[in-house]
Amino acid sequence: MKRIFTFLIIVAVLFLYFWVWVPEAKRAESGSTGSLADIQAKLDALRVQAQALQLQISLAPGEQVIVTSTVPGYFRVVDSCNWAWQGGCVNVRTGPGVSYKKASVYLETSGSQPARVRNGQMFPITGLVRGADGRMWLKIKIDRSAMAFPGRIHGDWYVAADYFQPVQFSRITPERDAVKSIKVVLHEQKLYAYEGDKMVKSAKVSTGSGDLQTQTGHFHIFAKYPVKVMEGPLKGLTDEYTLFVPFSMAFYRSDQGMAFIHAAYWHNSFGSPHSHGCVNLTFEDAEWLYNWTPDPGIRQIPVTVVP
């Protein structure tokens, strides 16, 4: 039955594309109907409707799609276990309800590991579903095309909405972007944010330890990700891992990959070295810095790392 519904969706989308969207776009270009922006808005709305229908037919009887979006929103975990797995950890499920099996992360050497969430984690969310028991569930977006080890996550991931809060992104002093800069002092394990000569923020950090020291030098923030999937192992240096890392800002490339300034929810060692070369911050400090840092596609602010 689901295959039949999927086939009907494909037919409907093709019909809309060739007999509605393309003709309307051509009329818009010729000036005979609404603007291209209006047409794009209609297309976006239709994509959301198609996504909602696709999600609905994947659900069991009694489950209902409440909201979907082609652009993910971001939600943080607020009522689960802490960084050390202390307290009741919230399980990820393969469907919208506790009757579904618990999700896992499948590591090549270590085998299946339970997918559980901790306070301070953040996920991209593309759907809100009411389960058969009336409880609300968030559907996590899993972008396997952006993963180095896409086979580690099987199927869909859902989490109960009552353990999460939405994250708002709000720029901080954008009028001062031209004079912003970041300095990391390794021997202090501190990060400083400046607007011109004025320090506007300081925070404890955890930088690289052991053989994975944070590189010193002069860099720039060249990419920003609300959530970046980071994976290992780093050959001969680290164990396997798959982490959904909040507020990730890339500032350095090396043979091992990119180094980021980001939040860390898996330790509480801020003020001492603990990372694989990145600059770790608390969730709150990383959120502030992310909102303060301009879009690197417009302006790449300098980052200086000193011993």
From TrEMBL:
It comes from the Bacteria. InterPro entries: LD-transpeptidase, LD_TPept_cat_dom, Transpep_catalytic_dom. One of its GO terms (molecular function) is transferase activity. Transmembrane segments: none annotated. Keywords: Cell shape, Cell wall biogenesis/degradation, Peptidoglycan synthesis, Transferase. One of its GO terms (cellular component) is extracellular region. Residues 180-306 form the L,D-TPase catalytic domain. The active site is at 262 (proton donor/acceptor), 278 (nucleophile). GO terms for biological process: cell wall organization; peptidoglycan-protein cross-linking; regulation of cell shape. Pathway: Cell wall biogenesis; peptidoglycan biosynthesis. PANTHER family: L,D-TRANSPEPTIDASE (PTHR30582), L,D-TRANSPEPTIDASE YCIB-RELATED (PTHR30582:SF2). This is L,D-TPase catalytic domain-containing protein. It comes from Candidatus Colwellbacteria bacterium CG_4_9_14_0_2_um_filter_50_12.
